[in-house]
Amino acid sequence: MRRINGLAAICRAVEGVAAAPSVAGNLVRHHRLVQAALSTTTNNGSLSRSNWLSCNRTAAGQSTSAAAHAVGGVILFSVAASAIGVEAHAKEPVQSEFRPKDVVLYQYEACPFCNKVKAFLDYYDIPYKVVEVNPLSKKEIKWSDYKKVPILMVDGEQMVDSSDIIDKLAKKIHPDRAVGSVADNEEKKWRGWVDNHLVHMLSPNIYRNTSEALESFDYITSHGNFSFAERIAAKYAGAAAMYFVSKKLKKKYNITDERASLYEAAETWVDALDGRDFLGGTKPNLADLAVYGVLRPIRYLKSGRDMVEQTRIGDWYARMEAAAGPSSRIQA
Ligand SMILES: N[C@@H](CCC(=O)N[C@@H](CS)C(=O)NCC(=O)O)C(=O)O
């Protein structure tokens, strides 16, 4: 029998969660239900139950992920909101020599890390194709040794890990950019905050209760690469699993009130802006793009709507939507 740490690791990708060691009766019972639900959904027989539930393995070879990881790594994506009423903040098309001819993003539509990369590509107006990865079979990235998304292929060069991808691209775009300045340090600090703090606020919020978990999975499954059968099963089983996982995550990250923590993070970010339009001043910097990217998947879910209603982040978010502008995604 799979241990609950497999279940907890469902959203490891999103949360960087180490597998939880304990087995709680309820969770195990629930996990069985989820397994049962998922095992009924293999539509062609080639996707075994363990594939469904175990889409990742730890170094020790333990199975670590599960449907909802698969699915749960996939937080959600934003519907691009219109920038009506927002002052004009434009994209910053690449001016340097760096003009990649062929950029392909392997992603889950709703993954916050993938959305971070997309926010960057959109803002710099770099055209990219998207290959939506099936989070259960991951057959689209079988060719790669790296088993997570995002993977970005830039003129044949494989780039992995959202922050590394952005560092590499930023270097190509601004090869002469000075490092070590106050602005540069500030940008680094807040990019770190996104990866180490902000992303951990997401899952506990979007899977906070059954209705929010279902809203999230409805979105995830309708925008991801799922077969019809997978979609139906993943929605209910994934939502149920992630509901429990989010409780574990709360504990792991010492979150008592997930909404309060999300609001606090939003306020912390607005304080960091210190009256500026963007952390980067009059233009977004990489930290602005990172915060915007990871929040995009939740912005139009209940948690994101609440966050915008209850905190001061809305104006900055609207400026970011205007700055990132329409997606530079092109047909694959
Ligand atoms: N540190 C990585 C984290 C990437 C990550 O964890 N991605 C998740 C999706 S949100 C993933 O692919 N998890 C593995 C899986 O789904 O099995 C980054 O910033 O790109």
From TrEMBL:
Lipid biosynthesis as a keyword of this entry, yes or no, is yes
Query: Residues in domain GST N-terminal?
Result: 101-177
Q: Identify this protein by name.
A: Prostaglandin E synthase 2
User: Which reactions are catalysed by this chain?
Assistant: prostaglandin H2 = prostaglandin E2; prostaglandin H2 = (12S)-hydroxy-(5Z,8E,10E)-heptadecatrienoate + malonaldehyde
Q: Which GO terms describe its cellular component?
A: endomembrane system; mitochondrion
**One matching Pfam family:** GST_N_3
- Which pathway does the record list? Lipid metabolism; prostaglandin biosynthesis
BP GO annotations:
prostaglandin biosynthetic process
Q: How does it sit in the membrane?
A: Single-pass membrane protein
Q: Which InterPro entries match?
A: GLR_AS, Glutathione-S-Trfase_C_sf, Glutathione_S-Trfase, Glutathione_S-Trfase_N, PGES2, PGES2_C, Thioredoxin-like_sf
Protein family (similarity comment): Belongs to the GST superfamily.
Q: Please state the Enzyme Commission number of this protein.
A: 5.3.99.3
Q: Which EC class heads this enzyme's classification?
A: isomerase
